[in-house]
Design a protein that fits this description.
The complex is a heterodimer. By secondary structure, chain A is mainly beta. Chain A contains two helices and twelve strands, in the order E-H-E-E-E-E-E-E-E-E-H-E-E-E. Chain B is mainly beta. Classes of the chains: A mainly beta, B mainly beta.
Chain lengths: 251, 205
Amino acid sequence: MSADPLSNRKPETGAFFQRDRLWHPPAFTPDYKTSVLRSPQKALLSLDNTLSEITGPVFGHNVLGELDNDLIHNFARPGESAIGPRIIVYGRVLDERGKVVPGALLEFWQANAGGRYRHKKEGYLAALDPNFGGCGRTITDEEGNYVFRTIQPGPYPWPNGVNDWRPAHIHFSVFGHGFAQRLITQMYFEGDPMIWQCPIVKAIPDRTAIETLIAALDREATIPMDARAYKFDIVLRGRRSSLFENRLEGN
Amino acid sequence: MAQSLNRLKETPSQTAGPYVHIGLTPNFCDITGVYPEDLGATMVNDKTKGERITIRARVLDGTGTPLKDALIEIWQADADGLYNSPGEMRSAADPNFSGWGRKATDMDTGECVFETIKPGRVAFKDRRLMAPHITFWIVARGINIGLQTRMYFSEEAAANAEDPVLARIEHKVRVPTLIAQRAADGAYVFDIHLQGEKETVFFDI
């Protein structure tokens, strides 16, 4: 067993709830053209979790550097900072039962304030910011809380339709306690009309589901004269209690 | 009206997009100086127990073209069939083996290489043993929700034949899509086909 962020708690070992695949985007979404040749066409093989999915890697705070959750400074030259609207993004990681998920590794990446990514395959004409790399990470605390500081990314055009634009967004990668909870998603910003015009967003069939990806502006969490704050909670798959299960896996 | 179960809905997935490297393997895409190394880049050290193996994996689209912007994570048991995870209640896994690896596919060839160990067998729920296997999780531009599958080993024909998960595959002609083959240099080659006649069996698990 590795360093356990739950320390005094007995780890949960139940299988995860079935994923609601009508809530998630389907694989084949032709308005998002790249999905056409990259979507499995045969039915998925549905199985209850085995130990291979119930377990998962855990990351200790020792992997984190001091500036990992500060995208304004983690790539900037000493004494300088990234250009753009300064924001705090915070929230909690919960599971479908409403239980908080401590020790969850969150990794995020984003474009700069002009909508430009620092990537060799990126050709958008907006300028790079020499002080902005675009990656960060953190681990949720005992109450499932996380926070990071960044600049608000810009929207940008992308080759799909002739004139498609991505709404401003931050990508999130999330680890829970089991590999079956592994999730990648994107956070959008409250009030952005471009959310509803985006083929990637609209791959999600349910409007209520899309709304759960829109972070709320939180004036109370704003730091006066410094940074606005957005709240973004993340929900991972819940898991069954193993109390009444006939567990024969050797324990 | 009955009482509410007070359940929440899982956060919906969105594609990792073409720039997944910035967040998950920044050093691979030349964003250096932020993290000392990319997480999951190294799975074994000198003290790790078990047979060293090399896996060369690719992800191919519906035309057979390898994806050059995919990211693969693998998760596996140690040489004794134990997971390095708090959810592993049987015994302590090898402390010198994380069991988790992450690689971006090469931007020119579409291949990614994992240096790891061959996993031991892990018990299924009814105590039958599963054949040695490695869990794969694949994300990329154009993939709306991460794809999960497994890699099994070609030399484990007997164990594969009694594996309770492989047994669930109705169309037996599809079982070979999950079995890595050995190349002349001893490496395991595992091609993941997103579509077509050779479409890999993906799991809803």
